[in-house]
Design a protein that fits this description.
Elements (H helix, E strand, L loop, with lengths): L7 H7 L6 H13 L7 H13 L2 H18 L2 H4 L9 E2 H7 L2 H4 L6 H11 L4 E4 L2 E4 L20 E6 L3 H7 L9 E4 L2 H11 L3 E6 L1 H6 L4 E3 L4 E4 L7 E5 L14
Antiparallel strand pairs: 1-3, 2-3, 4-6, 5-8, 6-9, 7-8
């Protein structure tokens, strides 16, 4: 519930941790779409409301988070930073590449980065020592992970029944990203499926069959996994509206 002196944006920030990552990404994209455009009255109005309802520091944090995700997932070259095969970039390079117009600083304040990682990019970005990387969602081909892992839990992918005929023909493909995105969390995959269609479909992956077919699996420490394309014979389709009683007993491997 909103308190009498709390704006919707402030309330959303306090609840950010409890939102699934795909909802966080959607909200981030919507905020970005509502940036100022002199030829777009609606965007101008949305930006004005945004300026009124969000503090200056909040706007800076969200701008920083969008820039950081774009750099770590899609275009490190544009920022002039070096990314290794596992997606790591040094914080020193990140701090040195920060556009001066973004936050008004020539160097990245540590407290801003800590808040961005803790409250906005939770689970989407990983920070170890002096290095940082995105945990999934990459399109850059600089990412070519060296350490493969074999999942020990069932893996799922949320989609729709409308796409199932195509998936049966070509299998699961990255669809513009570097890898296919899977999850150990059935509820997370189900929420994605329900957000995409009125006819949600969750696919369960037969890990052994996928490995035998040459699929490679990677994980950066969260429930989201990345993998190379998976043939259709490695997939089991489950209607989320009529799951069998033995669903959780079904062996994924």
């Amino acid at each position: 519930m909103l308190s009498p002196h709390q704006s919707k944006i402030d309330w959303l920030q306090t609840q950010w941790h409890y939102l699934p990552p795909h909802v966080q990404e959607t909200i981030t994209l919507l905020v970005e779409k509502c940036g100022p455009d002199p030829n777009d009255i609606i965007a101008d109005e949305a930006h004005t409301i945004q300026r009124i309802t969000r503090s200056d520091k909040s706007r800076r944090l969200y701008s920083l988070s969008r820039w950081l995700l774009k750099l770590l997932r899609h275009n490190p070259e544009a920022a002039g930073v070096n990314m290794d095969r596992d997606g790591w970039v040094t914080l020193e390079e990140i701090a040195g590449s920060l556009p001066t117009h973004l936050l008004g600083f020539t160097r990245l304040p540590t407290e801003y980065l800590v808040e961005v990682l803790e409250y906005i990019l939770w689970q989407r970005v990983q920070l170890i020592g002096g290095n940082i990387r995105a945990t999934y969602g990459h399109t850059t081909h600089l990412l070519d992970p060296t350490e493969e892992r074999i999942p020990e839990l069932p893996l799922f992918h949320g989609t729709s029944w409308e796409l199932w005929p195509l998936i049966k023909q070509v299998g699961l493909t990255p669809a513009g990203r570097r890898f296919v995105q899977l999850s150990e969390d059935f509820d997370y995959a189900n929420r994605i499926a329900q957000g995409r269609s009125a006819n949600p479909l969750v696919l369960q992956i037969s890990t052994n069959a996928a490995l035998d077919a040459g699929a490679r699996f990677f994980n950066f420490g969260i429930h989201v996994w990345q993998c190379t394309p998976i043939p259709s014979h490695c997939l089991q389709a489950w209607s989320t509206n009529a799951l069998p009683h033995d669903f959780w007993l079904h062996a994924s491997r």
